[in-house]
Amino acid sequence: MKILLVEDNPALRSSVKKGLTENGYDVLAAGSLEQARGYDAGETLDLVLLDLGLPDGDGLTYLKDLRHRQPTLPILLLTARDSLNDKVAGLDAGADDYLVKPFDFQELLARVRSQQRRLSTTPAGQVQVLRVGGLTIDLLRRQVERDGREIECTAREYDVLVYLAQTPGSVVSRDRLATDVWKVKSRMTSMDNVIDVLISRLRDKVDGPGQSKLIHTVRGLGFMMGETAP
Ligand code: CA
Fold it and tell me: Is 155 helix (H, G, I), strand (E, B) or coil?
């Protein structure tokens, strides 16, 4: 799980980074908005911890911008501003939660875990959001995005995408797609063409210009979704 920490206080930044790293998180630490933008453009983030008072701008502006680009990314504010107005402004701007400084590290950990749970499961314990690389599939809203770009899918394309994204890194055969997505009892050869055309359309939508490929063809076997080619 990759966390972007944006905090200009060097002591707080390094102690939070150290604590999170010790708890198994992968932390990118930024001391300014400029650094934060550098990280959020190039990395697939799972959570952002954001200070509001930063040397090169207001964290709220950045928050709005980030929320616009990555609607499902959990963003937790770290703020010294303890007034109700600031909390409301932060939540209105798209933050998922906030912690008022000084905070207890265990409290921070608990909030981070709670964001993780919120995003990965529904109350019934089912997966709610699938992520592969920069691709996000919100299963409740049936929304697909890649790095903040919304992807319009037909119902069938969506079903295939979800099917592949459920097992990233594993090969899915045309047989399985035919049986599980198209619900055909025994696959006919003509299905191969249908599947291949759909995969090709999906690939055009998912892998935008200049973006890495997420849907791979595994020759003779089928397809695989993942950040790296098989
Ligand atoms: Ca600050």
Answer: helix
Euclidean distance between CA atoms 147 and 27, whole angstroms: 19
Protein residues placing their CB within 5 Å of the ion ligand 1: 8, 51, 53
Single pTM value for the model = 0.54
In tens, the pLDDT along 16-57 reads 999 999 999 999 999 999 999 999 988 889 899 999 889 999
Residues lower than pLDDT 50 in the chain? 122-124
Q: How far is the CA of 163 from the centre of ligand 1 (A)?
A: 43
CA of 153 to the centre of ligand 1 (A): 41
Looking at domain 2-116, its CATH architecture is 3-Layer(aba) Sandwich (3.40)
Q: Is 143 exposed, middle or buried (0-12, 13-18, 19+ CB in 10 A)?
A: middle
Q: Determine the pLDDT at residue 36.
A: 97
Domain regions of the chain by residue span: 2-116, 129-225
